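A protein record pairs a chain with a discrete description of its three-dimensional fold. The following entry can be read in just this way.
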Amino acid sequence: MIKSAIQKIINFFKSGSDRAVISICLVLSTIFWFLIKFSQEYTYYIDYPISYVNYPIDKYAKEEPIEELKVQVKAFGFKFLKQSFSGRDIELDLSKLRKASSKDTYYWLSNSEWTNVTEDLKGFSVLDIEPDTVFFKFSHKVKRIVPIRVPLDISYAENYVPYRALKIDPAEIEVFGPSHILDTLTILSTDVLVASELKSSIQKQLPIFFPHDLLSSTIKQVEVMQEVARFTEMTITVPIKIKNLPRGKRLKLMDKTVQLSYWVVMQDRDKVKASDFSVYCDYNEVMITNKAFLNVFVEKEPSIVKSVRLTPETVEFIRIN
């Protein structure tokens, strides 16, 4: 299609028609005008964007600083045309500002960048840089220790669960900001920790979200780790105790032990012992009911197990006296 269009244009100019002649003259005159205009020397201003770096962590600007300098240059038109397609900026290091006589006022001399600007604008004669001085007025920030929260969007594979609490390092950071903003800040959040069907521990670096531009910290991200473990079902035999048995009374349980089944993570299964559990029957039930069995209750269990079940849940008994 492109080749066809080009061929049509060529055929049009070759046709020798009045329209073709007029078009050729117009194109040639435009080219000559372009060459004449851009061959002349001009004096003009070029906008030079400023990139601010190394903001003082304990200060903030009372007023928004200027975004660009105006550099007066002299050059031929072709240089201006080429420069219009060039990216450029001046990096202003705020940690190197000079202190003015006025309190909390600092300044920067744009002429200090004259050499850098001249190197960037090769082929131009740099005549002036405006403004010659850039002033900064700062207010002091206060600081506060703020805890970090990590939002979670995690799902686990079957029989897998989080093992221990989520670790956040550091769990709190030192934050600088204006007092009226810090007074309302109770916690900082990170990006959401997202994972699905987890079967193994996860460790990531997450950026901290600062809800206001005037809040700052030397720490921009935290490391989070969620350990994951697989649960397995275990059983153990535990003796039954009798509670509230009056002095002189005797009660014989037909089963002196029960089987406890429970879930525990694989790496903790050897940590669980029968002595970690306590199960009992209550003699007071004998006084309340005429049934020939007592309920069995779990009084104590280790914190590392879950879903404890009894077998049997009741036990028959004989009153001896």
